[in-house]
From TrEMBL:
Protein name: Protein kinase domain-containing protein
Leader sequence segment: 1-24
Keyword vocabulary terms for this entry: Glycoprotein, Leucine-rich repeat, Membrane, Receptor, Repeat, Signal, Transmembrane, Transmembrane helix
Record's keyword annotation contains Membrane: yes
Limits of the Protein kinase domain: 436-703
Length: 703
């Protein structure tokens, strides 16, 4: 099939018509048009042919969704030296376009704005030129916009502020000029904004300082000027009123306001912008009260602005009635009067409030301090949980230039040999999971997600993605936990292949061996699926394997301390192709913040895995793991998830009331009795009455 010319594709797009050639797959035709422009010499995309099927793996770097539509194009670092074809707009279901780390030239086609399902756009580290298309504002699903390290010029389109799902905007190291659009302050999901090393002028929009999720702002090496927005003072307890007649009564009014960009600390980088001033920033001068921009105003407010037209920045924090130099004395006076009047009114309102409250309290004749209601002591209201975001753990980029153990981090005990053998880079992880495609999603929780992936050597892995805000805030503690995971090696533990952490994505990734047969839960409660019923020898083997794995965790070995799992459940017992059990989640509590660890225990408590002493002493011991192991033995014996009646000893003398009826009596009564006895003693309410795992192994004749 002959490829369709780009001009035809463009014409159809302009007319609003679907691009459907007379024969063949329109997406294949679009891919071939893209190939012709991306790789004109056919050096790197030779696998892309008109007879190929992108959903069958024939097109290198192309992946499809469950509906057979192209969803990802991953061609980063391929050496491509062409340009981006407008035909990309035909791929309506595209969610990820990854063309970074190439040598692409030319403009970003405005037709790219038709990709309304695109979430990730990575065009960084190329030689792209021209302006950023305003049509990007139509890409309503976009979450990551990476255009840095190119030759892009012109201003930042205000339409970028329409992309409400954006979390990362990286535009650094270009030739961008004009002002920072105030519309960027409408991106309430924005985590990171990097505008450094451009030619931007004007002030920093006040709205940026009010973004609730912003953690990194970099505006270094521009020509910015004006006052850095700082907001007001934060959480000031400003008034305490004591009424003499009622000394028990205290009225406290709290004013909660924002510190602005000061709250970012070192994550707000503003160096080499000579016109900036502000309070509370180490390297900035305090702004002149009467001339906040100073005598040598940078563009567009300097003397040249009178003869050289400039784009007036949308972000300028100036009064529209001010002239080029400063506001008039009359206007400043009027502002002062307004401020004084407002202050008087506010004070009057507060005084009136106090008087009203005092009068009402007196009328009510409250005579006892026990009747005081203090919201700070209330226990029946939900408390907002606040956890400081984790520090940037590891600055990790694509093919090279990163070292998670640099800057003295090797002090946590990593040897260079160990760290090198366990480190993945972000490109490997992204490629393995098809850029975290929903098709590969294995499971998801409020703090982590697990994806199936295929490494370049063909091995299948499971990649657990953890948001860094769920991790320990102390970097040294996190890295100690990470080191611990690398030390765990046992046939009955899921093996960690490696790890990688990305400051840009705000995530850490743990790469494990993929266990193909699901978890133990899938082999319980099987009335509707008797084909998956485990036979008796397999059940005994699984019990013994789990016991071996827990015993290994509890043992103190060279280079491995004793570890309490804390969250053993049937969900955590994975079954491989030989039906060998492998315990997952070992040591993860060493990485997670305390409130995340606590939240993971709720489900375990609901299913009866949590040892009763945890509710009284609030800590875990090896005997806590033994308790959970006993519950799992009962589940394997009964073939059921709910075994509370068995744990409490009911019907314990009758094996036929304990063992799974799906076995139809085909089991060893002696082995069943032994396992039931071990389960009962393991789930004793008194921790000291539970055996150690070493004793359990002896009872199972496995020592």
């Amino acid at each position: 099939m002959a490829s369709v010319p780009v001009a035809v594709v463009l014409l159809l797009l302009v007319l609003g018509l679907e691009f459907e050639p007379s024969s063949g797959n329109p997406e294949v035709a679009a891919l071939m048009e893209m190939k012709a422009v991306l790789d004109p010499e056919d050096r790197f995309l030779s696998s892309w042919t008109v007879d190929g099927d992108p959903c069958r793996g024939d097109f290198e770097g192309v992946a499809c969704n469950e509906h057979g539509k192209v969803a990802n194009i991953s061609l980063q670092g391929k050496g491509l030296s062409g340009s981006i074809s407008p035909a990309v707009a035909v791929l309506k279901c595209l969610s990820g376009l990854y063309l970074h780390y190439n040598a692409l030239t030319g403009r970003i086609p405005r037709e790219i704005g038709n990709l309304t399902e695109l979430t990730d756009l990575y065009l960084n580290v190329n030689n792209l030129s021209g302006s950023i298309p305003v049509e990007l504002g139509n890409m309503s699903s976009l979450q990551v916009l990476q255009l840095c390290h190119n030759q892009l010029s012109g201003s930042i389109p205000t339409q970028v502020g329409h992309l409400k799902k954006l979390s990362i905007v990286a535009l650094q190291s270009n030739l961008l000029n004009g002002a920072i659009p105030a519309s960027l302050g409408d991106l309430t999901q924005l985590l990171r904004l990097d505008l450094s090393f451009n030619k931007l002028f004007g002030s920093i929009p006040v709205k940026l300082a009010r973004l609730p999720q912003l953690t990194v702002l970099d505006v270094r090496n521009n020509s910015l000027s004006g006052n850095v927005p700082t907001g007001n003072s934060k959480s000031i307890s400003c008034i305490h009123l004591f009424v003499d007649l009622y000394p028990f009564y205290e009225l406290e009014m709290l004013f909660h306001v924002n510190e602005g960009l000061k709250s970012l600390g070192e994550r707000f980088q503003y160096g080499n912008n000579k016109g900036l001033c502000g309070v509370g920033f180490a390297s900035l001068q305090v702004c002149d009260l009467y001339d906040p921009l100073g005598p040598n105003k940078p563009e567009p407010f300097g003397p040249e602005s009178r003869t050289k037209p400039q784009q007036i920045p949308e972000s300028a924090n100036l009064n529209s009635n001010c002239n080029d130099s400063s506001c008039s004395n009359e206007e400043r006076s009027s502002k002062t009067i307004v401020i004084v009047v407002v202050a008087i009114l506010v004070c009057g309102a507060i005084s009136g409030l106090f008087a009203c409250v005092w009068y009402r309290r007196r009328k009510q004749k409250i005579g006892s301090a026990l009747e005081v209601s203090d919201s700070r002591l209330s226990t029946d209201q939900p408390k907002e949980i606040y956890r400081k975001s984790a520090s940037p753990l590891i600055s990790l980029e694509y093919s090279g230039g990163w070292d998670p153990l640099a800057d003295g981090r090797s002090g946590v005990g990593f040897s260079e040999e160990v760290s090198q053998s366990f480190r993945f880079n972000l490109e490997e992880v992204e490629c393995a999971t098809q850029y975290f495609s929903e098709v590969n999603l294995l499971g998801k929780s409020s703090f982590a997600a697990t994806y199936k992936g295929i490494l370049r050597d063909g091995s299948i892995v499971a990649v657990k993605s953890i948001n860094k805000t769920s991790c320990k805030t102390d970097e040294a503690e996190f890295l100690k936990g990470l080191k611990l995971l690398t030390l765990l090696r046992h046939d009955n533990l899921v093996a960690l292949r490696g790890f990688c952490c990305s400051r840009g994505r705000g995530e850490c990734f743990l790469v494990y061996d993929h266990i193909p047969n699901g978890n133990l839960v899938q082999y319980l409660d099987l009335k509707e699926n008797p084909g998956r019923v485990l036979d008796w020898p397999t059940r005994v083997s699984i019990v013994k394997g789990i016991a071996k794995g827990i015993h290994y965790l509890h043992s103190n070995r060279p280079n491995k301390p004793t570890i309490v799992h804390q969250n053993i459940s049937a969900e955590k017992i994975l079954i491989d192709q030989h039906f060998i059990p492998q315990l997952s989640g070992s040591g993860l509590h060493k990485l997670f913040a305390d409130d995340v660890v606590f939240s993971t225990l709720k489900a375990s408590a609901a299913m009866g895995y949590l040892a009763p002493e945890y509710t009284t002493v609030g800590r875990f011991t090896e005997k806590s793991d033994v308790y959970s192991f006993g519950v799992i033995i009962f589940q394997i014996l009964a073939g059921k998830t709910n075994v509370n009646h068995l744990r409490l000893g009911q019907d314990s003398g009758k094996l036929e009331n304990i063992v799974d009826e799906n076995l139809h009596g085909d089991y060893s009564r002696k082995e069943a009795a032994t396992l039931a006895g071990i389960a009962l003693v393991c789930t004793s309410e008194v921790p000291n009455q539970r055996p150690t795992m070493e004793t359990v192994l002896k009872q199972l004749n496995m020592n």
